Amino acid sequence: MKNLKRITKIAAALVATTIVVQQASANLGPVTGSVNMAGSLTLNANSLGGATTISSFGATHISSGTGTYAGTAGASPVTWTTPLSLVAGVDVVPNLWSFSLNSVTYDFNLANITSWTVTANYVGLLMGTGTLDATGYTSTSGNFTLTITDSSGGTSGQATFGFGASDTTTAVVPDGGLTATLLGGGLLMLGAFRRKLGC
């Protein structure tokens, strides 16, 4: 009977260790790489120079992706939160954009517009910073660049855009250290129980 109780304790300890190791492994680390999108948008003025916000985004699709975004090309729809200010400064917008593919949801939380410039050939460049998220990954600091091209020459308020976002991390730290430590602890515990039982 005593041996049965001891075996039950060993089994419970192993199950608990396995659960902790699995939970530690579920975090895939920081979001890495970059994602590029394309689509259309509407400004709150007919010209890029006079616009202060993006009123709405039209159909948007993923044109390419690397790292965490590898394999997302062609994904749609991408949902945008609007209006989006074109004025530099702090601009907190949760889920500025988001899309889902294969049970993974990707999104970007805007924190700051760092610059907005318009060139004479009707091209606007919006840059900012924020946080990249993806299901199973750690929130990661990121940058974005939104290039707006007004082919009407500033007479319609309609434009196309190319959007790129990327992580600002310098290296990916694998989760293997924590997982290996937990697994090693579980094996040491099993060895201690075996010695105690004399088996």
The backbone outline, from C-alpha atoms, is elongated
Q: How far apart lie the N and C ends?
A: 16 Å
Cα-based radius of gyration, to the nearest Å: 25 Å
**Average of per-residue pLDDT values:** 78
SSE run = HEEEEEEEEEH
How are strands sequenced across the largest beta sheet? 3-5-6-7-8-9-1-2-4
- Per DSSP, what share of the residues sits in E-state strands of 2 or more residues? 35-45%
Overall tally of domains: 2
Q: State the share of residues found in helices, binned by percent.
A: 10-25%
Instruction: Please give the number of β-strands.
Output: 9
Number of helical segments? 2
Structural class: alpha+beta
Poorly predicted regions: 3-25, 170-190
Instruction: Give a quick account of the main beta sheet: strands, pairing sense, barrel closure.
Output: 9 strands, antiparallel
Topology, element by element:
Blueprint: H1 2-26, E1 34-43, E2 53-65, E3 79-80, E4 84-85, E5 89-101, E6 104-119, E7 123-134, E8 140-149, E9 158-167, H2 176-197
Antiparallel strand pairs: 1-2, 1-9, 2-4, 3-5, 5-6, 6-7, 7-8, 8-9
Word description of this protein:
The chain is an alpha+beta fold. The chain has 2 domains: 2-26 and 175-197; 34-167, no CATH class. The protein is 24% helix and 44% strand. It is built from 2 helices and 9 strands; from the N terminus they run αβββββββββα. It has helices at 2-26, 176-197, and strands at 34-43, 53-65, 79-80, 84-85, 89-101, 104-119, 123-134, 140-149, 158-167. A 9-stranded antiparallel beta sheet has the order 3-5-6-7-8-9-1-2-4, with no helix packed on it. β8 and β9 form a beta hairpin. α1 packs antiparallel against α2. The two termini are 16 Å apart. The model is unreliable at 3-25 and 170-190 (pLDDT under 50).
